Amino acid sequence: MATVTRISALLDRSAFRATRRAAYLDTATVGPLSRTTVAAVAGALQDVAEHGSAHLDEHFAVVERSRAQAADLLGATAESYAFVRSTTAGLAQVVQGLDLEPSDSIAVPFGEFPSLAASVLGTQAGLVWVNPGAVHATTLDDYRQVVRDPRVRLVVAPWVDASYEAVDLRALADLCHDAGALLCVDLIRGAGVLPLDLEAADVDFAVTNAYKWLLAGPGLGLLYVHPRHLDRLRSLEPGWLSTVWTGDGELAWRSDVRKLEGGTPAIPLHHGLAAALDELAELGTERIGAHVRTLSGELAGRLADAGLPAPRATEREGYAAAAVCRIPVRDPGGTVRALADRGVVCGASGSSLLVALHAFSDSDDLDQLVTHLGEHLTRTRENGATP
Q1: Is there a common fold for 13-28+284-378 and 37-282?
Q2: What pTM does this model have?
Q3: 184, 154 Cβ separation under 8 angstroms
Q4: Average pLDDT over residues 175-183
């Protein structure tokens, strides 16, 4: 009998309570927190409780450390990154901060997360759909057709789209720039698990939150601004940190990316982000991405051996598989609930069960998924339902 190679987790699973309770395969919704990250947040709160402002300088130093860590992970320099409350807030800062004209248009793929299109509502510009009606998975040609309209000044697009496939960011940026349009990218479905270099990709703006594959919890996001656009982006949050006093007693905007950060930062969340990024940086996204690809291949083989539905394949030019396997099932919501009852936590979207992988995922997770998915689909067939 051939020996089956077991795939071990890269991160210490015992450090994540969620992975001790279940086969946790739902980072596409929320990434679990390690005990180190939780302790960092709690420690910052405890320090303020006990010492008040005594260590404020040290806390602000952690803010800057987390900025540098994010830059190392995502590419470009720390001076290109501002902190925001969420991906939604970052999108609004870009779309509304550019002060586009009523004659301008902003292109957004149809059927993507609502915040991409909602960011346009606070502007004078018009909204144009890429791939209207989403009759097929959006392609690079869909983007190319839209930006041929000279009124399209900005494209707001996901790096990993609703099909959980990652677009070639450099190819997308080039076709936007060739047509005279800027590109703002939502990174949230890939940041922390897929290799990325924003500077090399030449995107104009990018946003993400920390609560998915960055494993740092909600409430803190990142906004990347290419240096060539910093001067043209108006801050939507003027405050004591985004301004400076001039020599003649006037209040003026800061000249660096911190002009986009108006108020006191969420210091405990920065401690958590710094701790989470330390753990990811120790592995590197190249290694994490390779781990996820290996697990995805094992899952496909295990499903085939068990006679279960195969994950949907990537077929679009310029797109590649990300960190989520999409398994077609008739009742995704019911399947998610049935699996959760048996200690397997997954997500669902459209007609697919979503299996989201990360550095803490291992072969044991796949064992539980394949076993309980097979049992559930068998039961539904026996009960007269179509799985």
Answers
A1: no
A2: 0.94
A3: yes
A4: 98
The distance in angstroms from the start CA to the end CA of the chain is 33
For residues 74 and 83, is the Cβ–Cβ distance under 8 A?
no
In the chain, what are the domain boundaries?
13-28+284-378, 37-282
Q: What are phi and psi of 193, to 5 degrees?
A: -130, -20
CATH number of 13-28+284-378: 3.90.1150.10
Interval 3-61: pLDDT, tens? 568 999 999 999 999 999 899 999 999 999 999 999 999 999 999 999 999 999 999 99
Distances (CA, A) of 253 to 148, 180, 358: 36, 28, 40
pLDDT digits (tens, 9 = 90+) for 67-84: 999 999 999 999 999 999
pLDDT in tens, 181-199: 999 999 999 999 999 999 9
Architecture of domain 37-282: 3-Layer(aba) Sandwich (3.40)
Q: How far apart are CA 228 and CA 174, in angstroms?
A: 16
